[in-house]
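Lab meeting, action items carried over

1. Structure of the two-component assembly. Owner: GW. Status: complete.
Input record:
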Amino acid sequence: MNIVVCVKQTPARDSLLRVDAAGKWVSEDDLNFEINEPDAYALESGLQLKEQHGGEVTVLCAGPARAAQTIREALAKGADRAIHIAADHLGALDPLGLAKLMAAALRDEKPDLVLTGLQSDDLGYGQTGVILAELLGLPHATIIMQVEVEGGTLQVKRELEDGWFQHVAMPLPALLTIQSGISKLRYATLMGIKRAKTKPVRTVSAAELGDAATPVLEVARVYAPPRGKRTQLFDGDARESAARLVEKLRFEARVL
Amino acid sequence: MPTTSFRGVDYLLIETLFSEDERLIRQTARQFVDERVLPVIRDCYRDARFPQDLIPEMGRLGFYGANLEGYGCAGLSNVEYGLIMQELERGDSGLRSFVSVQGALVMYPILTFGSDAQKERWLPRLQSGEAVGCFGLTEPDFGSNPAGMRTTARRQGDTWILNGEKTWITNGTAADVAVVWARTDEGIAGFLVERGTPGFTTSDIHGKWSMRASVTSSLSFADCRISEADRLPAAKGLKAALACLTQARFGIAWGALGAAMDCYETARQYTVLRKQFDDRPIASHQLVQEKLACMITEITKGQLLAIHGGRLKDQGTLEPAHVSMLKRNNVAMALDVARLSRDLLGANGITDEYPIMRHLCNLETVKTYEGTDHIHALVIGERVTGIPAYR
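Predicted assembly:
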């Protein structure tokens, strides 16, 4: 089975974030980066499927030069090869623009299965995977917690709301967006890290892939949620004021 | 994954000195310690037991003999290896000791001084963690002066008859194979003694206030018959045993940094959150800041020593007298950092809710084993004066 896993490099989760000078993104100075968490689970799922059914895992990653570290980590964990779409400002692309680049990079790949994280920890659109499925002409399912392959069919478990799940059978090839926390992530072994150096990485520029799409979606401003204090006074009858206070506490503050 | 994973201690852009491989390798060790060691180590220490479940997993990850070549070993550079030691000892000195002994004191001598048959028999199993090893040099009456050892091996045809006692042996009762040093007519020689060999018995040392999450044992040999095939053929004289210790000491210099980092980072976070006098964090007091400044400066100097030492070792120019400086400085530094950190946590610092007292007690052992602080001072003293002052 030929599996493509799409991964993104995002700021480490406990980073101290500062808005950049232009007010359009966070300042990347002295930030640590790591693999987007749901993508780490997508990679784990891909590696497990390869172990069960054979084949190859290819990592697809769009990002600036620093993303090479995330690609290297995926190769160290057991992916066989990688495609790096060299793109300096992912923030300037909307999900459609990025998915177009990714679809173009996969043009000659003919994957049986494409896995992505369900969303990125930084922009969090949750759209790139599904749009990519559409562009590749593949059926897709989102928020996947479990994947099994039986013959040419996928059996997947989707997470719905309120503790409900949906079990879906779907044909291959397909695209799945994977939920975080569904399995135990493997570590890159020391031998794996050494072997990763010898694995092929194909780097393509966004321009080579026909990067001409004008974003229809734009980040207007990045800012911290404003903090404010408002005082409300309840005048009048004590009994009535108490009732209104309880209502506020229950339905607005949600502390009761 | 824990949400508060360790982000490292780096005041002086030390990070820029590391390659991509070095960072990835440190990340594997760091995540392993955060996820697999920290959740269990306090209980292990309380109960005085080694976290045995971790032995095979550390083998799969490649931690044993990681800087050796062949037989399944990862062939890491010495800085890469050092970073693993740093992260392991950030977890606990006992864990780093286990890995140090396995790699530097058991696998290294078999690889360096062993026969092909010995290498093929033991190295793959030691690398995977399927077999555990220990190193028997110290004796009840001979610690800093191993040349005086009383354990003897007497040749009888193709057999050696071993008699004597070894003590303070990490992993002694847990070991499948012991590398044992004994006096023979031809000088000091090294032997591989398998668990269960008649005449070979082990017992644990109890009542330790230090290294409680590590197995420390005594080995006893009473007319224990060892085949000539189990003598390390290329280990000639005490210098072979000392060469193993140089390997291990290099790892200790890095490991001590990890213990110091954990103490410092615990204290730094504590002083920022702990409020006293007018609801101000104690970190806003000058005496507290002076301690933090002192600690981060000493840790940074220790990091630079370790990295420089590692690069020299990769070039093949790191000498035993250099390693003495690395080990002595970094362990003494870590012990000072642990004591200052304990101080900053006040009464809370003495409980096992925080790792500091555990590191502090462990580091008292680390200061003594593998060449005491004093002996390393004399090695350095001899190097700069040309006059040996050991007696």
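2. GW to write a short summary for the group page. Key points so far: Chain B touches chain A at residues 1, 3-5, 7, 20-21, 23-25, 27-28, 31-32, 60-63, 66, 72, 74-76, 80, 84 (CB under 8 Å). The domain at 133-236 of chain B is CATH 2.40.110.10 (Butyryl-CoA Dehydrogenase, subunit A; domain 2).
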